[in-house]
Amino acid sequence: MASTFAGLSITRRGLNAAQVGMTVTTNNMSNIDTDGYSRQVVSQTSVGPAAVYSSSLVGNGVEVTSVDRVNSFRLNQKYWQTNSAASKLEAQSTYLEQIEEVFGSTDSSKISTVLDDFEAQLETLADDPTDESVRATVLSYAETFCETLNYAAESLSSLREDLNNEVYTAVQNINSYTSQIAALNSQITTASASGASTNELEDQRDLLVDKLSSLVGIDVTAADDGSYTITVDGVTLVKGDKANQLECYTVTDTDSDAYGMYGIRWATSGKEFDSGDSGALGGYLQLRDGNTADNKGIVYYMNQLDEFARTFAQAFNEGVTSGSTTYSGHADGYGIDSAETTSTRFFTYNGLSSDDFVNSGSDLEDAYSNLTAANISVSKDIQEDTDKIAASSTAGEESNSDVLDNIIDICSTVAISGNSTTTELYNVIVATVAGDSASAQTAYASRSATATYINDSRTSVSGVSSDEETVNLSIYQQAYAASASMVSAWSELYDVTINMVDD
């Protein structure tokens, strides 16, 4: 038969179970807005008779076996993978928008605008090549054109430096997150071995893994002892209480697209770190160093801008042949100075004179290879004497504007590269950047939506619902009240029984 005091023992267990339930529910409610918190539930089981030889047909009540966190590791893994991919696209779309701002649109870009203004002043000068005030205005607009290209190149360089700093910060954050995850791994395995709860520790760890996944593509596996092993492209980043740290260094290889920028390597082995194809870090590196049509980054766009500046300057200075027609360049014409100067280059770089520019390379092509959007300038000759602006095809004919007319055509209607005019050549760059930016934004929107959906699925499993917890609290309160009533009933029963014995 059951123990004499079995009723009180069972009631005590019921009170304890209800109290634990109310405590867990209260804890859930208080953490409803805590980032990364997973709701907890009480696991309880019925307690059988005290011994197998007992003749009691009644069990011994209820026992709380554990308080478990509700969390789906499978959904976590899916989220971490998708979050890495979305974060890379977010980094790319953010910086591509800024690159797009530098180049402008095909309808209105600063470079196209100042080029049109420069051309308009050349047309005004063609009406009267001897007008000194117009010559001064032509110089001013030419300098503005060069300065606009200089500023665009400077802006791209600044964005690249920003990306380089992003790389450094990302590496520092990765090291911080992995160190904290390794420390939590250690705490979790120790606590788990001693039978203590690890719920809050696991929440903290998963939140750190969320942040880590936004920086680099990771694979996460859970060990039997509760610890995580995290790898990047097959190389272990975290295992147990150990974290494999990264370090940044300055790339000194002049043949590398990352020359002068931060490289990343494993701190212990010194081997190069491969960030993989996802994570914000991968996006930063690709945009910072990308230099091919299949891997476009700032270096690629800078090279395109340099090529535009170089091609335009060479066509303007040397002339071009388009189809069967040859158009004279500035070096073919004559100014109105007393020396009737010819062979003067209008555009050079770093303010070089025409002669110094020509002599800066082994040949003319080599000299132009030194000219970039960052250093293009009006030659020192023109800056010091606007009478050297060439207009005439014949020495001494000051009103002759044949060469200037050819130069104006070069600025507007003549193909200077393949079948592209100056405007079309620049618009190709603008359209490329705009297309890449739009593509990145579309891809990010799609992948971000997927990540949000998976995260919402995680939240539906592990998130705290105020309605659900309110119902749970009511259930546990009623259970507690019922058990408390049973305490009173059994106490009264025992009092009667004891009094009967005493009598």
From TrEMBL:
One of its GO terms (cellular component) is bacterial-type flagellum hook. One of its GO terms (biological process) is bacterial-type flagellum assembly. It is found in: Bacterial flagellum; Secreted. Residues 96-326 form the Flagellar hook-associated protein FlgK helical domain. PANTHER family: FLAGELLAR HOOK-ASSOCIATED PROTEIN 1. One of its GO terms (molecular function) is structural molecule activity. Residues 12-37 form the Flagellar basal body rod protein N-terminal domain. This is Flagellar hook-associated protein 1. Coiled coil: none annotated. It comes from Sporomusa ovata. The keyword Secreted applies.
